[in-house]
Specification:
alpha+beta; Peroxidase, domain 1; 61% helix; globular
Length: 179
């Protein structure tokens, strides 16, 4: 399901990114989308956004009321469009995708590393150097330990996933053997 919402959110994020680039306001747009995502994810508002009996206009007005006067005309237009199409629930995905595009445009790749064991500073530096050469841009690592991987690491950089974990290899083998 998360993949489906990402697929639907991507054109909105790309359009928002184009407008933000034209206006030279990537940071402002990222902040505003982050705020809108936080509003939609609030438990009380999230309940209303997921309620099919609440109209798009009511939700739009609710979001405008919470967001205050800080939204640009273009950002208000995006909220109106999402409300009219009953897609306000996509705001967190749109914000996440927008942030990824902004990071790439700034020449920085955020890379998440999940490892079965602790990754030393020297190993992190070696990974940074290798990934910097692979992606051709600066790399910002976030490292998380995940014992469920059994061994190895999983590298995720946006849509790119490199699964070198024992768990991943076992899952792949299971799929091939149709277990």
């Amino acid at each position: 399901m998360a993949g489906d919402s990402t697929t639907i959110a991507r054109p909105y994020a790309e359009a928002a990114f184009e407008v933000a680039q034209e206006k030279k306001a990537l940071g402002d747009w990222a902040d505003a989308l982050g705020t809108l995502a936080a509003i939609v994810e609030d438990p009380q508002i999230s309940e209303q956004v997921g309620n099919p009996n609440v109209s798009g206009e009511t939700l739009r007005d609710l979001i405008f009321g919470v967001a205050g006067e800080g939204l640009s005309k273009e950002m208000q237009g995006l909220v109106r469009l999402l409300a009219a199409n009953k897609r306000l629930v996509l705001l967190p995905d749109i914000a996440r995708l927008f942030d990824q595009m902004k990071t790439v445009a700034e020449g920085l790749r955020r890379v998440e590393i999940r490892s079965a064991y602790d990754v030393s500073a020297a190993e992190q530096q070696a990974l940074t150097t290798t990934l910097k050469a692979h992606f051709g841009s600066e790399v910002e690592l976030s490292v998380e330990q995940d014992a469920s991987l059994i061994g190895g690491i999983v590298i995720r950089a946006g849509d790119v996933v490199i699964d070198g974990s024992v768990r991943g290899k076992l899952d792949q083998l299971s799929n091939e053997l149709q277990f």
